[in-house]
Amino acid sequence: MSEELSDFLDEVEDPSLAQSQAASDVLPGDRQEYPVQPAEPFIEFDKVSIAFGDRKVLDQVSFHVGRGQTLCILGRSGVGKSVSLRILLGFLKADSGSVRVQGQEITTMDERALQQIRKDVTMVFQNGALFDSLTVGENIAFPLREQGGLAEDQIQQLVTRMLDLVEASETVNMLPSSLSTGQKRCIAIARALASQPTAILYDEPTTMVDPIMARLIGDLIQRLKRQLGLTSIVVTHDMRFAHRLADLVLFLEGGTVRFFGTIDQFYACDDPHVTQFLHMDAFILPNMNKQPSAAVSK
Predict the structure, then answer these.
(1) Who's near 72: CB < 8 A, 6+ residues apart?
(2) Three-state SS across 153-172?
(3) Nearest residue to 101 via CA among 233, 261, 247
(4) Burial of 212: CB neighbours in 10 Å, binned 0-12, 13-18, 19+
(5) Which of 21, 103, 214, 276 has the fewest CB atoms within 10 Å around its CB?
(6) Where are the alpha helices (DSSP H) in the chain?
(7) Does 284 score more than 50 pLDDT?
């Protein structure tokens, strides 16, 4: 086994231990606080714009995420949240602006170079994007076999460890059609994690899942950040979910950035689009009236 793989497996601790640690650190319903520290951006958008025909989906959008931070992208449906993720992975090409990952400009990369970026930054799609004809274990093993470099016993060890991590070991021989929506999301996270990325993008991970599964997914994202230092971008409309996860919040409206800053600054923001969004949210969250610790740059 390679030293890199061994180190990775060692970092992924037993999920029951992680649950116990998380339970001692976070009161029910509370958001785990992680300090937002200045750092060289791991991911950065600078004045990115894209239009589909006459419709401008993103207009001069700028934001950044530091290594190990979690950014939640909020906004109504159709404002360009998921489009941002697809631009970041090179599935869509921006009309203008700069997109950098670990200091590398990706807008000018060819497909081969983008494939390397996608090894470092993986995406968990809303539908899970699992192969219907493969079992759960085979789905997780598929990208590992495709990229090569691992013996079969190493692949199986990774599959087992990833399923343990997402608490889905009993699904290893099941087909995706037998899984609930929430289980499919967890398996998709396990498959993304098996590739040992440095960042994971999540597209609406709690859509159409029950509150218990949403809590499990949120706990899992937090645990991956704490244990592996993963950078995360989470597209969501779920404010309770964002409240628990976010170091930073990006709020989009009409293709433009109406807010970029910390979660507490977001609650205190007086932009009418932000206040309307918070007012219309179904949940009453704790600390929503907490004053920001610093001015927000818009």
Answers:
(1) 233, 234, 235, 236, 241, 242, 245, 246, 248, 249, 250, 263
(2) HHHHHHHHHHHHHCCCHHHC
(3) 233
(4) exposed
(5) 103
(6) 3-11, 15-25, 81-88, 111-120, 136-147, 152-165, 181-194, 211-228, 239-245, 263-268, 272-280
(7) no
Say if residue 297's pLDDT is above 50: no
**Residue 33's CATH number:** 3.40.50.300
Residue 292 resides in a domain: no
Contact of 236 with 73, CB cutoff 8 Å: yes
Predicted local distance difference test score (pLDDT) of residue 23: 39
Residue range 93-152, pLDDT digits in tens: 999 999 999 999 999 999 999 998 998 999 998 777 888 899 999 999 988 888 777 889
Instruction: Please tell me the distance from the alpha carbon of residue 274 to that of residue 38, in angstroms, as a whole number.
Output: 25
CA distance 257 to 273: 11
Count of residues making up the chain: 298
Could you list the residue range(s) of the whole structural domain that residue 164 is in? 3-280
Look-up: residue for tokens 């029910």?
28
Does residue 160 lie in a domain region? yes
Residue 289 lies in a domain: no
DSSP bridge partners of 235: 73, 203
DSSP assignment letter at 111:
H
DSSP assignments along 181-216, one per residue: HHHHHHHHHHHHHHT--SEEEEESTTTT--HHHHHH
Condensed to tens digits (0 to 9), the pLDDT of residues 153-210 reads 889 988 998 888 888 889 999 999 998 888 888 899 988 888 889 999 999 988 888 8
**Is-above-0.90 flag for pTM?**
no
d(CA 130, CA 87): 22
